[in-house]
Amino acid sequence: MWPTPSISSTVTRGKVLASSRATPLDEAELERAVALADDGQPLGPAHLSERIAAGAAQAPVVQTLNDAVEALKRRMIEDALRECGSKTQAAERLGLTRQSLQQMLRRRQ
Fold this sequence. Notes:
With 109 residues, the chain is mostly helical. It has 2 domains: 9-58, no CATH class; 65-108. The protein is built from 6 helices and no strands. The radius of gyration is 18 Å and the shape is elongated.
């Protein structure tokens, strides 16, 4: 049986999962990292794709609960607008009225 590398706490806590802007590791990313790692060695930042490493390096550190909530709102709104294509559909997806979404967008400018 082949030993499975473990993800080091440096990767999971310090670079990938701690920031609000980092892209979470998906199954394909983990498979890639395991394939690049030597047998029995822990996974580290060198095993991650440039997309994950760049996202973690650029991610701001959230200092307060309010900052974290605002960052989450901003990310969810950006994702909904990008994926839905219209403010009305994005608002529906987010459980908001179109007017509420527009107010939130104005406040963020």
